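In the current project phase, work has continued on tokenised descriptions of protein folds. One protein thus recorded appears below exactly as we store it.

——
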Amino acid sequence: MPGMTGVELSRKILSVREDIPIILCTGYSETVSADTAKRAGVREFVMKPVTKKELGQAINRMLGKTK
């Protein structure tokens, strides 16, 4: 995504359709945190490297299957 952060992309997507669930996966960043992502409407935030188990847990939380 040259020229755009994941948070910026999330905001653009949600401005078109606010009910789209977004899981943001990112590496180390000084500008993006779980709190920043949540304020932008991101439902789940995971740090890379992410395992299949962690991604599955994030998906389940987003779908309301676990807490």
Notes: Residues 46 and 54 are 8 Å apart (CA to CA). The two ends are 31 Å apart (CA to CA). The chain has a mean pLDDT of 91. The first helix runs from residue 6 to 16.
